Amino acid sequence: MKVFALLLLLLFEFPNVANAEGSTQWHFDGHDGTPTDHFFRLNPITLPTEFTIETWVKSMSDLTGDWWMSYAIGSGNPASNCFIQSSNKLPVGAWAHFVMTWDGSDTKIYIDGVEGNVGSHPVKAKCTGSPGSLVFGQEQDTVGGGFASSQSPHIWLDTVAIYDRAYSSSEVAEYGQDKKCVDVNDVDLWGAWYTNDGVDQSGNNRATADIFTDATAVGAYGHCSGTCFHADGTVLLESGVPKYFSELSLGDVVQTSDGSGTFSFNPVLTLPHAKNTQTATFLNLTTETGKSVIMTPDHYISNCAGKEITSENLLVGGCLKTIDGSETLFEINSVKKSGIYTATTKVYRGRRYLSFPIL
Fold first, then answer.
1. pLDDT per residue as tens digits for the range 326-357
2. Cβ density class 194-211: b for 16+ within 10 Å, e for less
3. DSSP character at residue 237
4. Residue 150 falls within a domain, yes or no?
5. Across residues 54-63, what is the average pLDDT?
């Protein structure tokens, strides 16, 4: 039996993913036209007690008084604002990866993975646990409204995601400016919006966004395309018996890796794909000793330096980690296969892993 130990990373936290699916860029024209008519609004919505808000935003101005994101609960003016963010914290004319975290006591913001100044309007403790309104493209003086044209920013927005925990500085810095998309299967994902109909794409049935813009474009930062294996790929059960990917069941205990080269057996937590015969192009990787694995081009795999890279970026002669140690990549072939499958196992530093052997 020839065994190839493979690390599966569902693409939430790793960089250089170029292909996002199904996203739309939304344009809010600021002080031009009818600025208060343009916004992305989630109302009502009750934020988790700890959270991370993630989005991609391109600001076309850096005016201090232009508030591009606001969250409000209750009533009053301006006391209803739980937190707001000014355009002057964003680079001008370039897409930026924006992250805000709230751990129950402290607010942090990050631009392209670098921690920045929160400003004078951080998250308040009252912001969670009660219904409110999260708006991009306007500052709220009343819940869900009270917009002022003098405060309307000129921005583009692409994809909004909310997670139900506060990511650490090191976790955000790890993917930094290179992150391109959201993994809808991520265990911490609370809600995700990247389509023009405003529907929550996380599967958690959160609020549907009201989206009013003057123009839209095809997005680049939406849903990560799936990293998958074909139906006849095999996993190694704890019993030592291989099992086809298409036959996996929840609770099956399979061989996994924690991302540092340590292998163990862990139960399957989710199986995102139903039975299917969908065809796709895969890459067949073969090492010097004849070990082989077949996976989609955007799947991550560990090289001998301990870095995870996509299979499409591998070169013959490169060094890969296998369950038997380091081996040279001997051959790469493109093949068509039927059935697209993936699975997730334990959480490790916010990621889910599945390592599986190929006979």
1. 899 999 998 878 787 877 776 544 444 444 44
2. bbbebebbbeeebbebeb
3. B
4. yes
5. 89
- The reply to whether 107 and 201 lie within a common domain is yes
Residue type, 353: Y
166 and 248 assigned to the same domain: no
CB atoms within 10 A of CB 325: 9
Residue 175 shares a structural domain with residue 270: no
Q: Is the pLDDT of residue 13 over 70?
A: no
How far is C-alpha 154 from the chain's CA centre? 25
CATH of residue 349's domain is: 2.170.16.10
3-class SS of residue 13: coil
* Cα 101 to Cα 124: distance, rounded to the nearest angstrom: 12
How many domains are there within the chain? 2
Give 290-299 pLDDT, tens digit per residue: 888 888 777 7
Residue 89 phi/psi, 5° resolution?
Answer: -90, -5
- DSSP label at residue 172: H
Q: Domain end: 190, 224, 258, which one?
A: 224
Whether residue 107 is found in the same domain as residue 157: yes
Give the separation between CA 303 and CA 325, rounded to whole angstroms.
11
Q: Give me 87's structure tokens.
A: 């355009």
82 and 213 in a common domain: yes
Residue 320's pLDDT is 86
